[in-house]
Amino acid sequence: MSEKPEVDFTPGPAPTDLVIEDITIGEGDEAVNGGVVDVHYVGVDFETGEQFDSSWDRGQSARFPLPQLIGAWQQGIPGMKVGGRRKLVAPPELAYGPAGGGHRLSGRTLVFVIDLLGVG
């Protein structure tokens, strides 16, 4: 996976539970709870389809300890294998919290497409 993914608009109401969808199954090492991941990702607002973040646009991947990430990533990345691409649809409770939570994305359902480049 060497190119930025397009995130398709999803019609209908936003899901209330985390949705995990494998786009490509990787064949490398597996991400584990509490581990460190090296990822490329795109994030868009479920309702508007507008991109709010992308490591691709910065030209470099992002390396994170999973425990420091939003709940959707903590639940949705473990089990993924290096070389894989996964789509997560995160309700507000697993993203940046309910509306009025102080983050610009509070109260929003978010869609992420994540490429797992490495684990540590």
Automatic annotation (TrEMBL):
<feature type="domain" description="PPIase FKBP-type">
    <location>
        <begin position="34"/>
        <end position="120"/>
    </location>
</feature>
<keyword id="KW-0413">Isomerase</keyword>
<dbReference type="Pfam" id="PF00254">
    <property type="entry name" value="FKBP_C"/>
</dbReference>
<comment type="similarity">
    <text>Belongs to the FKBP-type PPIase family.</text>
</comment>
<dbReference type="InterPro" id="IPR046357">
    <property type="entry name" value="PPIase_dom_sf"/>
</dbReference>
<keyword id="KW-0697">Rotamase</keyword>
<dbReference type="InterPro" id="IPR001179">
    <property type="entry name" value="PPIase_FKBP_dom"/>
</dbReference>
<dbReference type="GO" id="GO:0003755">
    <property type="term" value="F:peptidyl-prolyl cis-trans isomerase activity"/>
</dbReference>
<protein>
    <recommendedName>
        <fullName>Peptidyl-prolyl cis-trans isomerase</fullName>
        <ecNumber>5.2.1.8</ecNumber>
    </recommendedName>
</protein>
